[in-house]
Design brief:
Layout lengths: L2 H13 L3 H20 L5 H21 L3 H6 L6 H33 L4 H27 L1
């Protein structure tokens, strides 16, 4: 472990949340503040409150000794078993997202026609998800 890795782990331990929760909660708060200062978008406060709430919930879950489902759901794994549950759940979520996107695209073409904005959006979404799925599978296979 490098010195930087040790420093990062000590910082995360002091903040009492996983790196994922720290990143996403700060992203919500930062985007909310930027939008609040630069636009009159009324939902800016919702982003700020969401980021703060995510951080508070993550701290509470880690501190409470919550069960594995709650720890995995809120990205606060305690051990390798929790991380494996999270990996499997994420893989299944990706499969469902790709298939769901394809089904939604086909339904939108049937109902609204191929040129509707929704159909175009869902076509691109399905394409991007398929490319990500392909790339991630390729990378994962090469790392094993």
């Amino acid at each position: 472990m490098s010195t930087d890795d040790g420093r990062l782990r000590r910082t995360l331990r002091a903040l009492r949340v996983s790196g994922y929760n720290l990143f996403t909660s700060m992203l919500f708060v930062t985007v909310g503040v930027v939008l609040l200062l630069t636009t009159d978008w009324p939902l800016s406060w919702l982003l700020i409150v969401t980021g703060a709430a995510q951080y508070v919930v993550a701290v509470a879950i880690r501190a409470s000794g919550a069960g594995d489902v709650l720890r995995v759901t809120f990205f606060e794994p305690a051990d390798e078993r929790d991380r494996e549950i999270g990996r499997r759940a994420s893989a299944l979520t990706g499969d469902i997202a790709l298939l769901g996107s394809l089904i939604a695209f086909l339904a939108s073409v049937i109902v609204g026609g191929a040129q509707s904005m929704l159909s175009v959006y869902l076509a691109w979404q399905t394409f991007v998800l398929a490319v990500i799925w392909l790339v991630v599978n390729w990378i994962t296979a090469r790392l094993r």
